[in-house]
Amino acid sequence: MLQQAFASPRALAVALALVLGTGAGAGAALAAIPAAPPATASAPVVTIGNFTFGPMTITVPVGARVTWVNADDVPHTVVAVDNSFRSKPIDSDERFTFTFAKPGVYSYFCSLHPRMVGKVIVKRP
Ligand SMILES: [Cu+2]
Predict the structure, then answer these.
(1) C-alpha 95 – ligand 1 centre gap (Å)
(2) Do 18 and 80 form a contact (C-beta atoms < 8 A)?
(3) What is the whole-number distance in angstroms between the Cα of residue 46 and the centre of ligand 1?
(4) Who's near 15: CB < 8 A, 6+ residues apart?
(5) pLDDT tens digit string along 20-67?
(6) pTM recorded for the entire structure
(7) On the CB side of 69, how many CA atoms lie within 13 Å of its CA?
(8) What is the pLDDT of residues 106-124, one digit of tens each?
C-alpha cells in the first residue's frame, strides 16, 4: 500500500505533465489559426454585362472595396450621381475599384450609356 502510494503520485505527475503539455500545445495551435477574413463581404464585385450592372443594387459594410468588372465588348464607366467616385472608361475585362468609407446610398450610372444605373448601399457593420 505504501509502496504503491510512492509510485503512484510520481506516475500521476508525469501523466499530468504530459496532458498539460499537450493541452497547452493544442491551445497555442488553435490560437495561431487566423480568423477567416470576410473577403466576400468586404470585397464585392459588380459585373457589367449586357449593358447592365449586376447586381444592380448591392449592400456592403463601411470600408468595403467594391470592384466593377466589365464583361461587355464595349467600354463602360461607373460614375456616382453625387460625383463621389468616377471611373475612366473601363475596357472589356478591365476593372474599377472604389472603397466606400462613409455610410450612405450611392446611386451611379454609366456616363457612356446613362440608362445603365446601379446603387451601392453602404451600412455600418
Ligand atoms: Cu456603359
Answers:
(1) 13
(2) no
(3) 13
(4) none
(5) 444 444 444 455 555 544 444 478 999 999 999 999 999 999 999 999
(6) 0.68
(7) 8
(8) 999 999 999 999 999 999 9
